[in-house]
């Protein structure tokens, strides 16, 4: 996602880094390159033109600070404008003061509405809510079964009826939610391959009878400018509250994300990357702007880690690192925790600088399987004491894991290097705290 755009923007910033100051000439050249990069990323022409005009005006009016290079200052200007075009700040779902909160999901067929309905249910459940899903997509074959399958994975009820009556399904689902103390009702509606009068009339009628507190328009980011046009038509009909961008992990240039919010003036509330039910992320404009500019997204990475890592286990792990007793069993456990955080490609993209270094490298989620297989082929004693691994044991482990002795040796070598690095980082952290304490002490003297 945004890899080409990020690369081109950073190339533009780099060209300014050698300049002694920002001038009208180098600004014009940089702005021209940015506009070209945006259009290549399938950003709406009017949006790209207005965006680059703001950058140019801001750059010409700014005075370069003595401690900041022109490249850095121009990057800051682009970042500020990019954050603005993406929505400035996170917009939350509006919850009713008197439950249940009704959330209506709309969009074209194939945009990922049903999968998103399940993902949103899981996300809200993790926030302490008690959702129920309504299967109002009564036309698409197996749509109801798909929703029930997704809901079963997260232990969540689905309300459906035998008749092909979406309005009745939504009405009865609302009564069901009230009677069974569900504080959120998420209604999955039908879509078509294109916008048509029948679909719009039905979703408008559902909106009228259930009076939703939140209407979310789900759009496939891979459809580019068509996504913007579809969003415009849906907004004119049902006046939705927010946008959900799906399939951002696919072969997309990202233009829809930069265009939709500006064209329909409605916030992007969630982005979805991957088919797994936990592959849903609240949309933060400033974080997305950082990722587009190659700055990573450390905050989201930390939040993902906090969701998956147990504080008590983390404290135990820190003690083991300090005492040099971190072993392959601990390493294996950490791999399992990392896998829970989501796609390895997505995680790498959140680390500053890594996304650009690995822009031409596909990181498969299967990349950790050989490591897991090798460690799983060891005995408990071998995992706890890797030093006892002689040539015979390594041959047995290689055969059992379907790898090679070289792969086993490489893993052991990397594990030892990682242990040294972790111990060094722990020492540096203690030294840093000691230095800060000394600084505080001397500052008071």
Account of the 3D structure:
The chain is α/β, with parallel strands linked by helices. The chain has three domains: 84 residues, Four Helix Bundle (Hemerythrin (Met), subunit A) (Up-down Bundle), CATH 1.20.120; 184 residues, P-loop containing nucleotide triphosphate hydrolases (Rossmann fold, 3-Layer(aba) Sandwich); 135 residues, 434 Repressor (Amino-terminal Domain) (Orthogonal Bundle), CATH 1.10.260.30. Helices cover 59% and strands 9% of the residues. The protein contains 20 helices and eight strands. The protein has an eight-stranded mixed sheet with strand order 3-2-4-1-5-6-7-8, sandwiched between helices. Helix 9 links the parallel strand 5 and strand 6. The radius of gyration is 26 Å and the shape is flat.
CATH architecture of the largest domain: 3-Layer(aba) Sandwich
CATH topology of the largest domain: Rossmann fold
Number of strands: 8
Q: Please tell me how large the radius of gyration is.
A: 26 Å
Text of the CATH class of the largest domain: Alpha Beta
The CATH H-level superfamily of the largest domain is: P-loop containing nucleotide triphosphate hydrolases
Percent helix, as a range, is 55-70%
Gross morphology: flat
Largest sheet, strands/sense/barrel: 8 strands, mixed
Strand content: 5-15%
- Parts with pLDDT < 50 across at least 5 consecutive residues: 296-300, 428-435, 437-445
Instruction: Give the helices and strands as they follow along the chain.
Output: HHHHEHEHEHEHEHEHEEHHHHHHHHHH
What is the number of helices? 20
> What number is the mean pLDDT?
79
Terminal CA distance reads 53 Å
Going across the major beta sheet, what is the strand order? 3-2-4-1-5-6-7-8
Helix-strand category:
alpha/beta
